[in-house]
Amino acid sequence: MLRYWSWLLVGLSLFSSLTLAAPERGRNGTGGNRNGRQTAQQQAASVPQVESTASDGSRIVDMTATVNGLQMRFKVSAPEDQFVSTSAVRRQLSNATSASNSTSPGTMGLNVLLHGDGGQSFFDFPNQNVQANLMGVVILAPDPNLFWGGGQGLQRTDGAEHSQAVADLITDVMPQIVNFDPQQVFFTGVSGGALMMSGFFIPRQMQKFPKGGVLLNCGGLPPQVDFVDPNVLATTTIHHQSTQQELASLQQSIPDAVAAYAQAASDAGLSADQVNQLQTVDNTPDGGHCAFDEVGFVSGIQLMADSYANVIQQGGNGQVNGIGNVRRGVVGAQLTFV
Known about the structure:
Layout: H1 2-14, H2 40-45, E1 52-53, E2 59-67, E3 70-78, H3 86-90, E4 109-114, H4 120-124, E5 134-139, H5 159-177, E6 185-190, H6 192-205, E7 213-217, E8 237-241, H7 248-267, H8 272-278, E9 279-282, H9 297-306, H10 308-312, E10 319-320, E11 324-325, E12 328-329
Parallel strand pairs: 4-5, 4-6, 6-7, 7-8, 8-9
Antiparallel strand pairs: 1-2, 2-3, 3-5, 9-12, 10-11
Helix pairs in contact: 5-6
């Protein structure tokens, strides 16, 4: 355990010089290392992949798989008895082929988190504790700048490719690692990760995870691609969470995303009441980007992770400590910023 924390401190120090989490411009347009500086991806690669223990006693494994030609680093936090086998957990996967699916689906679900630009939440792993029968998974963006969807700002030029890789990692690789119920796969998007989730993943991949849900923290885009099956919105819970002092670019894109998803659900045949049961929004906290606790980015993201089941699972009471009930229906909702 001491070894893990020492490596964690090393990892965090490597990222201290970067501006993390906010959707931002690429450093040189291509994610390279101008002036000889390492990219965020290269810095992340220097942080060792070690097994450790979550704060609730779950086991955390840190692995890498090749998915569709992309190197996908990910962590899984689960009770010891949920892993498929000790050997499967400890080896590093070099090539992700279709899983044998020789194991029976588990009874627990997943909460898969996509971090913000720069990767802070990958190393923090705010969703590492089992909550409401959901095990934690966090995935590192396969991009030189660690931007989910690549590109820069609101332009996520690799959004479709990265979304496909995330879906394939869950459906093809994850069953080789841990037993889980494919009918209970939920997601969290943080900032840039939320841009990719809303812009590309939900319309193109969410039909593979029926009855799931998505928490979009401090980021949102209207669908940038056509829905494979718009009817997925009839079974998907979506919550948009922002703050009063959100980034200027997101003050426009988040309301646009809220309206676009509400309209897509209506077009799929849902009534206004049905839409409001499934899609909710809040920007009550008087904080900056992702500072849902009105203190800071890291603690704000942790606050939402701690309240995940209340906010995103159907039947949740919507309560978040310090904020109250954040589940306001999106139909007719008007977000105001300062």
